[in-house]
């Protein structure tokens, strides 16, 4: 029986770790991180300082704050930040590396060593691959490197490999570049020359392919669109990311290798990407050995523009109804008023409560054209309109038709809504008729 005791205590230990994690997430920051390797898709350059809130040794990431006031929380691999307990120490560290914050290098020679000290007899701590990109940390004084009784031209640099390994490397077999001026150097070196397909994959973010599908169909579900979700290759950072609503997957890699027509492997990870036309398929295997595939596309416009277009469409629907009123009256269902850009007031709707409008909903709230009409529900209606009353957190949906007689509404049950589309009308629909006051 004794052998079972540790197993019995294991869930409690896991619970304690989970509680500690939650407490850390609610507390203030744990320090300040100096960025070791630029993360352009996050707007971060080596030497930048960010507040750090959580350190996860299991996920091997920091949770840091970026953007105005550091309010946006992002995960950054541990090796890409150096954590300090105080802002002053972080600033001192950043100042010490400021001269080299934009400098990187690509490796000319396969097997080039990184050493523990700036001399050719020092211990090797890492072996580089031809085409690999490394970060220049600083220049140092070291022993001359001699070949055939003649000193080689070059400098000793303290460098960081793309997994966080640090040491010293002589620059004779390095091509040093400024990231502000040589954004394509790493891709060209890794593939033995320019590769337009790889450049297309690496040069910009990729977003879920359904963004474009929804836009083409004119049915954009705002809950399923964000500029944060997508595939971000991490061309300069050496860390690719797949961001989804449920979280982020990170893939540190050393280089990108072509493995087939339009197909590439991100070396050092399980990640592969295949480009066909404007469609990108990204695959990987998770920690449990389960395969995953995600599908992305190069968008005609940005996600933010898609969101803005849909918000404008919704606003136009409400504006058209408000212009036809803005006050509508019904002998059975009260007075409905559209006030402001997205607000409503509704009194006298007792016959609809609680079957359609929940009891205690209040007398007003927010109005929005947030759903679309499917073929099975389109007959005689122009669109949908939804009301969120101020005292309840749910939306109440209606089909609507606007005409000379006024406003016609038909209640829609949640069961008849799928993927933000009204796919069917209710079996015994409740239909409301309102006349526009003064008409």
Outline:
The protein is built from six helices and 34 strands.
Short key terms for the protein model shown above:
38% strand; single chain; 4 domains; SH3 type barrels; elongated; 439 residues; 34 strands; alpha+beta; 6-stranded antiparallel sheet; 18% helix; 8-stranded antiparallel β-barrel; 6 helices
What is the element layout, followed by pairings?
Blueprint: H1 5-26, E1 31-35, E2 49-56, E3 61-66, E4 72-77, E5 81-84, H2 87-97, E6 103-107, E7 113-115, E8 124-127, E9 133-140, E10 146-147, E11 150-151, E12 156-160, E13 166-170, E14 174-178, H3 185-191, H4 196-202, E15 207-208, H5 210-217, E16 230-232, E17 239-244, E18 247-252, E19 255-260, E20 263-267, E21 272-276, E22 279-285, E23 291-297, H6 303-324, E24 327-330, E25 334-339, E26 343-347, E27 364-368, E28 372-373, E29 383-389, E30 396-403, E31 406-412, E32 417-418, E33 421-422, E34 431-436
Parallel strand pairs: 28-33
Antiparallel strand pairs: 1-2, 1-5, 2-3, 3-4, 6-9, 6-14, 7-8, 9-12, 10-11, 12-13, 15-23, 16-17, 17-18, 19-20, 20-21, 21-22, 22-23, 24-25, 24-34, 25-26, 26-27, 27-29, 29-30, 30-31, 31-34, 32-33
